[in-house]
Amino acid sequence: MFDLLRQMVYGAETDPAVRLAELERRRDELEAEIARVRAGDVEVLHDTGLRDRYQQFTATAWELLADFREVEANFRGLDRELRERISAWRGSKGALLDDVLGNRDSIADSDQGKTFQAFYDFLLSPSRQEELAELLRRVQALDSLDADPRVRHIHHDWLEAAERTQATVRQLSEQLRRFLDDQVWFENRRVIDLLRDIESSALRLRDQRDVPVAMEMDAAAPKVVLPMERPLYAPPEKARIDSAAVELGREETDVAPLFEQVYVDPEQLAQTVRRALQSRSQIGLAALLDERPLRQGLAELVTYMSLGEDDFRTVFDEDHREQVRWRDEDGAERCATLPRVTFARAAGGRG
Fold first, then answer.
1. What pLDDT, on the 0 to 100 scale, is given for residue 351?
2. For residues 60 and 102, what is the distance between their CA atoms, to the nearest angstrom?
3. What is the C-alpha to C-alpha distance for residues 109 and 117, in angstroms, rounded to an integer?
4. Taking the domains of the chain in order of start, what are their residue ranges?
5. Would you say 77 and 169 are in contact if contact means Cβ atoms under 8 Å apart?
6. Distance CA 132, CA 137 (A)
7. Exposed, middle or buried, 110 (CB in 10 Å: 0-12/13-18/19+)?
8. N or C of the chain: less Cβ packing under 10 Å?
9. How confident is the model at residue 207 (pLDDT cuts 50, 70, 90)?
């Protein structure tokens, strides 16, 4: 029960720090258990623990089988409804398809449908099937359990129920295909009947001179646009530059501005982050700048945010904002509002 509660709580947690703390706690528990096993202290489940887990497994196994059968029943009901609607349908094909496919998606998106699809994909893996069969065989052979012989082959029951559900889905698809084929045939037949009615009317009116015939035209002459009237693609002309007669300039130019450009060394900033992570697992950008203020202004701040190394990660939290302040070369205070940035030590990093 505690494990299920932890999975729900930490599985829905979005704070990286909380998730990281939970992972570190589980890692410490695993390392402590490995140390005990290496020391010869092997903890074996007692009979009561085995029976409790076996009862939980059997209950879950029958619930999964019930979910499979409920999905099959839902698809069978949809198939019967489709047959009834096809027999009395007088609307368009698209309206019926939208309705049927929407109901099919609602079944697939239900809790039972998602459980069915996820576990069916799991059962289609040969390695998982072999592992499951071996685990069931070993569990059924435990002397402390009053094992249910039906559970020994429960995975075959799952596969059989899944195949019946898939067969129902295939039957539903077959009904849709037959409906579309019939509708196409009826539409073609309707077109042929209309053409024959037009031909019959034309033959009846062929020899009658006093029958008024009226026709409306949108314009006196059709507007024809020929394909060749459109201009063909013409590649743009490239300007020809003749650099053969280039002469060396003699004017004096002040090159000092070229050496006044701000260059920020990313490796130096990465070393600053690594030193800060030596005594802790993570640190925020604001806290890091409190310890080591910005020296090169906005360019240095942007470089901090673009750092990406193998031994630490840069995590952005768009839901929280923080402000970073510094002073420029003229002594004026500057402020930047940005998402919360955290540097976290990677597993196996040099921190």
1. 45
2. 30
3. 10
4. 1-43, 52-187, 264-345
5. no
6. 9
7. middle
8. N
9. confident
pLDDT digits (tens, 9 = 90+) for 264-306: 888 888 888 888 888 888 888 888 888 888 888 888 888 888 8
* DSSP label of 141: T
Spatial neighbors of 273 by CB under 8 A, at least 6 apart, are 283, 288, 307, 309, 312, 343
* Helix H or strand E segment including 224: none
Confidence class of residue 168 from pLDDT cuts 50, 70 and 90? confident
Compute the distance between CA of residue 335 and CA of residue 323 in angstroms, rounded to an integer. 7
Q: Which residue has the tokens 């007088």?
A: 90
Return the structure tokens found at 256: 């000092």
Alpha helices by DSSP H, the chain: 2-11, 16-38, 47-87, 93-108, 111-123, 126-140, 154-205, 266-277, 285-291, 297-305
Q: Running DSSP on this structure, what letter comes out for residue 242?
A: -
Higher pLDDT, 9 or 267: 267
The average pLDDT across 106-112 equals 66
For 56, 153, 174, the CA distances from 51, given in Å and listed in that order, are 9, 19, 47
CA 16 and chain centroid, separation: 20
Tell me the pLDDT band of 96, cut-offs 50, 70 and 90.
low
pLDDT over 80 (residue 122): no
Q: Could you tell me whether strands 312-327 and 282-284 are parallel, antiparallel, or unpaired per DSSP bridges?
A: unpaired
Taking the CB of residue 72, how many other CB atoms lie within 10 A of it? 21
Nearest to 294 by CA among 322, 325, 267, 263: 325
Average pLDDT for the chain:
78
| pLDDT average, residue stretch 256-270 | 76
DSSP state of 257: G
Distance CA 68, CA 162 (A): 6
pLDDT band at 88 (very low <50, low <70, confident <90, very high): low
